[in-house]
Amino acid sequence: xECTCCGACCVAPDIAALDKPLGVRCPHLTEGNLCGIYExxxxxxxxxxxxxxxxxxxxxxxxxxxxxxxxxxGFEEEAARNRAAxxxxxxxxxxxxxx
Length: 99
Ligand code: SF4
Ligand code: SF4
Description:
Helix content is 39%, strand content 0%. The chain has 99 residues and is an all-alpha fold. Bound molecules: iron/sulfur cluster (2 copies).
C-alpha cells in the first residue's frame, strides 16, 4: 500500500537512531506530519515501508492513529508512562520511568 503520510510511525515506535522514546513525537515531524529532515533522515526511516498495519490504524486524527499503532503491539501503557513523565530521550525514559 501507499504511505499516506499519516505520521503515526514517526510518533508511536521508539527509534534508537533518533533516541526517540516510545509514544513520543519525533522532533523532526512537522505540523503537517511530514519529515522535516527528509533528505537526511536516518536509515531506519528510509527502510520503513507502508504495510497492512497502516490500513489497520487508519483514523481521523494522529492521536487516534498513534493509539491504534501502540495497541497493535501492546505498548499503550509504556507509551503513556513515557508521556506522563515527559521523557525526551530513550535514556531519560529508562531513568525516569519505573516499569
Ligand atoms: S504509519 Fe504507514 S501510512 Fe502512516 S506515515 Fe507511517 S508508513 Fe505512512
Ligand atoms: S526523522 Fe523524519 S521520518 Fe524519521 S521519525 Fe522523524 S519525522 Fe519521521
